[in-house]
Amino acid sequence: MNFGKTCRMIWIDAFLTLNKAPPLRRKHLCAEFGISIAQAAVDFRDFMALFPWRMTYDKTAKGYVVKGRRAFKEDDHNVILDACMTVSSVAKMLGDRA
Question: How far is CA 19 from CA 14, 28, 35, in A?
Fold first, then answer.
């Protein structure tokens, strides 16, 4: 598994931990990492294969919801979330200059 995919796996777990609602959808992963809908679907499939206890798809909510204990430690969540915020801030700053 490459570094980007590992980051997305930790981010999925962090999202589930921090956001009890709304349900996690592919669009959340796409917006955060700039990946395609197809890649987000693959990431969710892979996450569920690695951590089957963590989340389930809720057909009514049309998204993934918490099913069980977290897959990663809180420290892992914090590192990834901090990195995402930094990249987002820099991207906005650069976008304002373009």
Answer: 8, 12, 21
- Note the pLDDT of residue 96: 52
Q: Report d(CA 39, CA 35) in Å as an integer.
A: 6
Give the three-class secondary structure for 67: coil
Contacts of 21 (CB under 8 A, 6+ apart): none
What is the spatial distance between Cα 22 and Cα 51, in angstroms, rounded to a whole number?
20
Distance separating alpha carbons of residues 77 and 15, to the nearest angstrom? 9
How does pLDDT run across 25-52, given as a tens digit for each residue?
999 999 888 899 999 999 999 999 999 9
**Backbone phi, psi, residue 66, to 5°:** -65, 135
Of residues 36 and 94, more confidence is placed in 36
Half-sphere exposure of 54 (CA within 13 A, CB side): 21
